[in-house]
Amino acid sequence: MSVLLEVQDLAVAYGHIDAVKGVSFQLEEGKITALVGANGAGKSTTLLALSGLLRPKVGSVRFAGEDITGLAPHQIVRRGIVQVAEGRAILTTLTVRENLDLGAYTRQDRAGVADSLARVFNLFPLLEERTSQYAGNLSGGEQQMLAIGRALMAKPRLLLLDEPSMGLAPLMVQEIFRTLVEINRDGLTVLLVEQNVRQALKISTQGYVLETGLVVLADTGASLLANPKIVEHYLGG
Ligand SMILES: Nc1ncnc2c1ncn2[C@@H]1O[C@H](COP(=O)(O)OP(=O)(O)OP(=O)(O)O)[C@@H](O)[C@H]1O
Ligand SMILES: [Mg+2]
């Protein structure tokens, strides 16, 4: 097994509020890892620290063998860590195509960008049908697809997702999870934060459970799905 990202003793605070209190975890290259936990457990804070949007108070982050602790967001994106924003954060007054092009703005390899666009359209045929529509006219699920597509246009080595299924109808939730499996099959490493614990663990090799800023359980996705504590607290008994 090869470790792509290693987080050690990460602590993140908002002023005097300690949101993440010393978490350690590893992401295996080419695998999906789930980060689950109740509201306020520190999941989003952890992702924001990995993206460089929040500076860790303590701890270290190593990515592909390099210490990236405390780097700025653009430096982290350049290394291949790309986050699909919570609440989607697509640009509603731009077209679908313009949103996708923005995802590739750091890239110089035109042929590679064209390949990425073809792959995104292959994953989400609906986006290809709507390239010239304003993103604001897409449904919630379609906007989520666009947000994922835009992140893929950056050609990430690690994709971070914060609750991609939030607020979506069941069929669309299935579609999003199916797509994540397909993206992962291309070799992309994924860190998935989800309230939909059952679905997330089902597609994840490894899972970590956060409670009030601490990792309280770490195991394979399959073992966590069968763990009585997880069943009771996160899978509705
Ligand atoms: N901007 C902020 N300022 C102050 N405290 C914050 C801020 N953002 C989050 N917190 C606090 O940090 C803790 C962790 O929040 P975080 O958003 O990381 O949790 P989460 O696991 O993503 O929760 P959810 O499932 O509700 O998204 C919570 O106690 C939260 O109230
Ligand atoms: Mg959150």
Please describe the topology of this protein.
Blueprint: E1 3-14, E2 17-28, E3 32-37, H1 43-51, E4 58-63, E5 66-67, H2 73-79, E6 81-84, H3 96-103, H4 110-123, H5 125-129, H6 140-152, E7 158-162, H7 170-185, E8 189-193, H8 197-203, E9 206-211, E10 214-220, H9 221-226, H10 228-234
Parallel strand pairs: 3-8, 3-9, 6-7, 7-8
Antiparallel strand pairs: 1-2, 1-4, 4-5, 9-10
Bound molecules: adenosine-5'-triphosphate and magnesium ion.
Task: Report what the structure shows.
- A 6-stranded mixed sheet has the order 6-7-8-3-9-10, with helices on both faces. The protein has a 4-stranded antiparallel sheet with strand order 2-1-4-5, covered by helices on one side.
- It has a domain at about 1-80 and about 160-165 and about 190-235: P-loop containing nucleotide triphosphate hydrolases (Rossmann fold), CATH 3.40.50.
- Helix 3 runs parallel beside helix 6.
- About 40% of the residues lie in helices and about 25% in strands.
- The chain has about 240 residues and is an alpha/beta fold.
- It is globular and about 45 Å long.
- The chain has helices at about 45-50, 75-80, 95-105, 110-125, 125-130, 140-150, 170-185, 195-205, 220-225, 230-235, and strands at about 5-15, 15-30, 30-35, 60-65, 65, 80-85, 160, 190-195, 205-210, 215-220.
- Bound molecules: adenosine-5'-triphosphate and magnesium ion.
- Magnesium ion binds near residues 43, 44 and 162.
